[in-house]
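Follow-up to my post from last week.
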Amino acid sequence: MATIDDVLAKIDANQTAALDRLFSLLSIPSVSTDPARAADCLRAADWLVGELKGLGFEISRRETDGKPMVVGHAKGARRDAPHVLFYGHYDVQPAEPLELWEKPPFEPRLVDAPTGQRIVGRGACDDKGQLMTFVEACRAFRETGGLPCDVSVLFEGEEEIGSPSLPGFMAKNAKELKADVMLVCDTAMWDRATPAITTMLRGLLYEEVILRGANRDLHSGLFGGAAINPIRVLSRILADLHDENGAVTLPGFYEGVDELPEEIAAQWRELDFNEEAFLADVGLSAPAGEKGRSVLEMIWSRPTCEINGIVGGFTGEGSKTVLPAEARAKVSFRLVGRQNPDKISQSFRDFVEERLPADVKAEFIGHASSPAISVATKSEALRRARRALESEWSKPALLIGSGGSIPIVGAFKRELNMDALLIGFSLDDDRAHSPNEKYERSSFHKGARSWARILAALAA
Amino acid sequence: MATIDDVLAKIDANQTAALDRLFSLLSIPSVSTDPARAADCLRAADWLVGELKGLGFEISRRETDGKPMVVGHAKGARRDAPHVLFYGHYDVQPAEPLELWEKPPFEPRLVDAPTGQRIVGRGACDDKGQLMTFVEACRAFRETGGLPCDVSVLFEGEEEIGSPSLPGFMAKNAKELKADVMLVCDTAMWDRATPAITTMLRGLLYEEVILRGANRDLHSGLFGGAAINPIRVLSRILADLHDENGAVTLPGFYEGVDELPEEIAAQWRELDFNEEAFLADVGLSAPAGEKGRSVLEMIWSRPTCEINGIVGGFTGEGSKTVLPAEARAKVSFRLVGRQNPDKISQSFRDFVEERLPADVKAEFIGHASSPAISVATKSEALRRARRALESEWSKPALLIGSGGSIPIVGAFKRELNMDALLIGFSLDDDRAHSPNEKYERSSFHKGARSWARILAALAA
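User reply:
Got it. Predicted complex:
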């Protein structure tokens, strides 16, 4: 049987072809939220089926009410080794605003930067680039004799829209999906040189509210003063969502939010996290969250309320004296601890309704709802994975939190009692969800090497 | 010389051809605020030049830094009669949102309604239909022997964007534009059966504010809580613009705003204005302006602050967990009395700046700025025009206010000491600035007849 060094050498030798494979996947605009991209989502799913079939997986596209899942299985050399299930998602965020991209978002390319080459394109990092690090590790094993343990994969196409089809699919296919450890590659490194395992993830509640007043847009001269303006009403409501200390004012919002345990707080204090540099990188200087909290708390362990989008009235160039009939906003909440997304959704809707003046009606659309997640920090799998990461990066892997949300991790814990290892290689400046998203070529290369070492370590 | 009955008979006989002429003008999408429609604005100007040339006017397109003016002159039979200058505008508001139009906005058509036929299309009322009532009156005189008095016309193409080129053009061409009376057809009737002369017009200040935070759109999971959200800042500022009684909170805003003189207040109380019906027509039930004011005060004699548009972040279908770098709003103020638009612009900008947290910068764009206008109510010309309107409509013409703004009227008073007669035939339900804008066919027909009577009365 091949040694781990053989496998790593194969990954090194495969780099050019590996990039070509990733670029094929990146060039498919699989934007799950956009109905016009439905066929592209299917293409991305089929691409993965083809790719993994070539690696010896028994794999197929599995239909759901939404985007299909891709599920596959391959046997490994050691039957007594733990069986892993790798999860990733083939859907991406919308690329808008397109005018801010230096090159078209679905024409991936390599760009030279002072810190090395970068892969640029929508999904380069989130999650196609990350997902392919694992696939390339599997390829290297395959090409040097075979996988060290049983590997299953689950790729979904609705992660960016809150994974609506996942609970039903899991319930129906629980036995098939059950494994010993779940592996996820959708998180960040601590920094360019330091690997990390994410053990706390915030949940997400995403709501849209539409306020309607008059039965049509009005002339602000002829009706201004007398007719209610839904933008004004919406502004007032959105302004009320935070108090002067940056805390969220929804009744009951902080139920289930605990103070950080002292042991974790102490560990975070020891991280050499530079608040100034973190903010300066995106052009900011002052933390904007709850007063008296550190930036790491704000983004890892405290809940938030953000207005993700707002629109109403005339938004074109120039001026139009319209008094609009409608205004809408998208509002999302990052959740922590035992915050209950259903209760907070209700609290938000009540909050809006209570503030509506005469003649204004509200409509609500729920886009996503998932609670926060904590991963066990003392498991044998985690211990082995940390060691494997340290071998690759020559630095200990840190245990960190993440402000993002990966709902599936909670679902697998609840439904199948599977613990997850959240290991990813993105960097804070990867512009996930933003124009000119990128993934470091080193993340892609050493990410694949890391997974090879982790699989070997788990099977050892 | 022909009698007024001959002229009126000619207008009646011309109706079908008159509609064809109006439809030609309505089919030109002369949207002044849209750079892509610049050539269409020129086409509309040229169309008017051709039309008036055919009526014996010495007329031409006159270039400005913006859209051209159209200026023409024609001699009348009576040299001792007052010389009138008619003002109208050939530009129109944007037609968006297009999906709310039953038919394309620039394909004008006649529609049957219980109250009679309607002309439907962008500009049908504001101001192409109104403007053409005067042109058709001139045609009828021309075809029955000639105009009764000297007539000049001034058509501009920037009324809907605040007439930026007008002050300079007036200053340069003061002598040519000077006349005895200015006539404007851009206002409303009291109701379907009752003509009106508008003697109070609100001014307009139109500002755009753009707030910028981070140097790019951010992932709300990775940065939410720590990074400032410009939509949240903007919402708070916009919410602060009104107090709980509906009054505008800008410092100094009400300087120069007088209580309505008792004589006018008494006259307005006698108008059979139905607040409930006025609001019900647009789907509303409660007046939304300053507490303790009547709806007529709110729309005619009180200043307002309206948010005409707002946009920021992700506004497409579905969800995107973005924390946006930018948010913008268009905010306009209707002004009355001696309110100073420059001072209020400064007050607004200070108000915004004072409320900006660290890391948020504001940019401002001024789109329009004009003070309120009052027209003399005791002139001989007004007396004659009222009589002429009464002859046509068999009801006395009311003296009313209007919430809209026609900046040129103030400019002509200030610069050339010309009083204006604001006489128009639109109705409150004409949907000016809204989808499916219309003009009653009876307004178009009897409007032309009204102008014929007014010209004859002024020249008598």
